[in-house]
Write a structure and sequence with these properties.
By secondary structure, the protein is mainly beta. The protein has two helices and 27 strands. The chain has a 22-stranded antiparallel beta sheet that branches. Strands 5-26-25 form a three-stranded antiparallel beta sheet. A two-stranded antiparallel sheet has the order 21-22.
């Protein structure tokens, strides 16, 4: 059962938006009950050329965990839950607060500033298989961030330079984390040995600048550059060992984008840029026995494509892209140290196709196709057998398609198709491929009064099997997806 309410009020430049939601579910699998609650508030004021806002959000979730199944049980009894996870579950809380100020300092100069605080806590008991013990995972994180951006649109300078338009933007931002991560071996939630007690801080500060240059009304260029620095400190409170963050240096991230409106019906675009990735948790720090600083993983990518609208009823989007990464890292699953693995140099290539058709005023058709392949080009020296192999859990194909029919203002009928291909479970590609599915969802909406609307959905209408699968080093572990289900919703506009 789910209850939700959203409301909005505004008067004399003051606006208030509220949301409250509550959801309880027994889940379709055994031992899968959950309860979620969410509250949010946004208070805004606009006047004197400035907009001020305060946002508050609260979320809590308490749930049992049905656990993973071995392959044979996932096929014969997908709704079951292993007896050894009878006490698995957890509680999670998130609190967020943000203030924002945005306005004009002059007719050509604008400013935007934001400050936010996020508080996250999680207490979870989990046992992944019968061969390992249950563990309690405690996480407590506080994230604080601030950002300021200035925008300048010098119209006279653009006119003198013969440009159609010119805008310059620059800013600074910082994100700071103060985190604690603890783990214990447990038996039915009774603590035994503590296996992790880590406290660490991470600070990322950056400056950025970009320009919007339009030589003509049909051509737009956006060059930009960002520089980041990383600092922080790590303490293993079990051993007393303290470690600094890796010396990543100044991380440079240039970018460039182009948009060319060739004709009213045809637009071409191209983007290129670099970003970076560092390890999470303990992997970001120079912890003994490691003596050398790790380098950041530099992700370099490009995309080029087109948008074609021959008429108001047809929109076609096509893009091809590539992303490469040096020394890509990935969190090491179920590792007491919290370290990450170095995958090596990687390359992802793909193509995206989107089509939207309106053959009639009452009918809408849409589809989206992604073809991709992600491989390890140069592996980590400790895993030479992974060279040329595919990165795990990346399906080669993803498809979405749908149709909406509105025969009148009262009724709406919908059908949605979702599909993806199989993926490998680990980097040697030797344990098989899993995870592919094709699911059909059917829905209808009935506006039976000006303020009331009834909705119904049949999800997974053909009752196809779906699952998420991973490999723990000795076997594949399966989390089956829901079979055919029917849901109803009553919506009221007050």
């Amino acid at each position: 059962m789910e209850l939700a309410h959203a409301g909005a009020l505004s008067a004399d430049g003051v606006s208030l938006n509220l949301f409250a939601g509550h959801k309880t579910s027994d889940g379709w699998r055994d031992h899968a009950a959950s309860t979620r609650q969410a509250l949010s508030l946004r208070l805004g004021h606009a006047g004197d050329g400035w907009t001020r806002s305060l946002s508050l959000r609260y979320f809590e979730h308490e749930a049992d965990e049905p656990g993973y199944l071995v392959r044979s049980v996932a096929q014969s009894a997908p709704s079951s839950s292993p007896a050894y996870v009878a006490t698995d579950g957890g509680r999670r809380h998130t609190v967020q607060a943000a203030v924002q100020l945005e306005g004009a300092l002059s007719p050509e100069l604008g400013s935007s500033s934001r400050f936010h605080v996020n508080r996250f806590s999680d207490d979870r008991w989990v046992r992944f298989s019968a061969a390992v013990s249950q563990q309690e995972r405690l996480t407590s994180e506080t994230h604080v961030g601030a950002a300021t951006t200035l925008s300048w649109r010098p119209r006279r300078l653009a006119s003198r330079a013969g440009l159609h338009d010119l805008a310059l933007q620059g800013g600074v931002d910082i994100e700071s984390q103060d985190n604690i991560s603890q783990r214990y071996t447990t038996v039915d939630r009774v603590r035994g040995t503590q296996t992790r007690d880590q406290a660490y801080t991470l600070h990322v500060a950056g400056v950025h600048a970009q320009a919007l240059v339009q030589p003509t009304p049909t051509l737009r260029l956006v060059p930009g550059w960002r520089l980041d620095r990383v600092a922080g400190h790590f303490t293993n409170r079990l051993t007393g060992v303290e470690s600094p963050v890796n010396g990543y240096g100044t991380i440079s991230q240039p970018k460039m984008s182009l948009l060319w409106q060739v004709q009213p019906q045809l637009a071409l675009h191209a983007n290129w840029g670099r970003t970076f990735q560092i390890g999470t948790e303990a992997a970001a720090y120079k912890i003994p026995p490691r003596q050398a600083d790790l380098k950041p993983s530099i992700n370099e990518g490009w995309e080029t494509g087109l948008r074609f609208t021959p008429d108001e009823a047809t929109t076609l989007r096509l893009a091809v892209w590539q992303q490469t990464a040096t020394d890509e890292v990935r969190r090491r699953l179920n590792d007491p140290s919290g370290d990450s693995d170095n995958i090596g140099a990687t390359r992802r290539r793909g193509a995206d196709l989107q089509l939207r058709l309106l053959p009639a005023a009452t009918l809408e058709l849409w589809s989206a196709l992604t073809l991709q392949k992600a491989i390890i080009v140069t592996p980590d020296p400790s895993a030479p057998a992974t060279q040329g192999k595919e990165i795990d859990h990346v399906p080669r194909r993803m498809v979405q398609a749908g149709v909406n029919w509105m025969p009148n203002e009262v009724w709406r009928l919908s059908a949605e198709l979702q599909s993806q291909g199989d993926y490998f479970l680990e980097r040697t590609n030797s344990t098989g491929r899993f995870g592919g599915f094709t699911v059909l969802n059917l829905g209808t909406s009935w506006q039976f009064s000006p303020r009331l609307r009834l909705e119904a959905w049949v999800r997974n209408a053909t009752d196809r099997r779906t699952e998420y699968v991973w490999h723990d080093g000795t076997q594949s572990l399966h989390s089956p997806g829901a079979p055919r289900s029917v849901s109803f919703a009553l919506r009221s506009d007050l």
